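Quick one, probably user error.
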């Protein structure tokens, strides 16, 4: 019993506990135990650390019983150096990641030369002004031959008052293993409507009309946990957001929710009887086209007159070679 309570052995028990706990965390990372597990990912990784630590702690008593005390002292030094080296390595990695994220954040957001109390981002303020000047219906600002992207991301500001932006992703790691570099904060005004409380000045989304609860970012790519979106449509700057912090809306679903669509000015595309280019053309005079079905690159629409009465059901081609052929009206 006295041998178990020697200072060298007690130190050995403690060092084995921490070293094996750390080994468990690395093992969990190597086998991607927490990948694609959402909020449970961190707990799973921690569980591996506890399991390894517990096994190492119990094993240390057997080792201490059979191994000479002088050898235990040498093992203690080795374990201590290994533990300190691991902690130093992780601290350096964490510092480098924070530095990289800070540089990415400041790339489009240089520090002001004079103090400012402004919280309303300049980019958003300009976008508000231009957007509210449009009468209803709101027309899309998508220009002919612009890159389509995959669709749109709509933040769920009802349940998530803050939308976080991420950069420098390691896609093999979970959301919990990344640190956001920026965010948009939402709040309700005195009319109980949502508005932007704080946001980076470079933010210019694809659509912004919060008095109608409309905020969309164009999607460039998507992963299990993240969506890459264009955060500034004027210069193409992109960032990543939590996929589960809002709704991913692909082009067909988005267009079917529109009030109406129309060809771009000077477009040579025609209205067809069926969903292929060689089908007969339809020349029925109409005021609006309302989407009702999408099949590949073709869209079935209702032809409406000025009183919104249906006067026909036809097909139009809405994209070609990943380019949009139509504009769309979000609100009625």
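Nope, works fine. Designed sequence:
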């Amino acid at each position: 019993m006295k041998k178990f309570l020697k200072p060298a052995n007690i130190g050995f028990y403690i060092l084995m506990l921490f070293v094996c706990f750390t080994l468990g965390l690395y093992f969990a990372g190597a086998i991607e135990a927490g990948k694609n597990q959402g909020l449970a990912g961190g707990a799973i990784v921690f569980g591996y650390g506890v399991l390894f630590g517990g096994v190492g702690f119990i094993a240390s008593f057997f080792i201490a019983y059979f191994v000479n005390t002088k050898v235990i002292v040498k093992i203690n030094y080795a374990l201590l150096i290994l533990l300190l080296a691991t902690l130093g390595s992780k601290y350096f990695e964490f510092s480098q990641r924070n530095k990289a994220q800070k540089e990415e954040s400041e790339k489009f957001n240089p520090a002001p030369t004079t103090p400012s109390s402004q919280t309303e981002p300049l980019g958003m303020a300009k976008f508000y002004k231009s957007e509210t000047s449009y009468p209803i219906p709101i027309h899309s600002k998508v220009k002919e031959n612009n890159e389509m992207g995959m669709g749109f991301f709509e933040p769920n500001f009802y349940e998530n008052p803050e939308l976080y932006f991420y950069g420098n992703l390691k896609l093999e790691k979970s959301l919990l293993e990344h640190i956001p570099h920026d965010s948009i904060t939402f709040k309700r005004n005195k009319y109980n409507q949502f508005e932007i409380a704080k946001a980076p000045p470079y933010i210019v989304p694809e659509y912004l009309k919060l008095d109608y609860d409309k905020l969309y970012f164009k999607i460039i790519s998507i992963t299990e946990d993240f969506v890459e979106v264009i955060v500034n449509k004027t210069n193409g700057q992109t960032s990543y957001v939590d996929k589960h912090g809002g709704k991913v809306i692909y082009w067909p679903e988005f267009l079917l929710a529109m009030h109406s669509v129309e060809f771009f000015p000077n477009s040579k595309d025609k209205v067809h009887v069926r969903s292929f280019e060689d089908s007969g053309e339809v020349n029925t005079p109409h005021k609006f086209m309302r989407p009702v079905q999408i099949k590949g690159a073709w869209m079935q629409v209702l032809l409406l007159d000025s009183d919104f009465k249906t006067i026909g059901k036809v097909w139009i081609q809405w994209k070609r070679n990943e380019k949009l052929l139509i504009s769309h009206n979000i609100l009625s």
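Residues 107-123, 125-141 have pLDDT under 50 and may be disordered.
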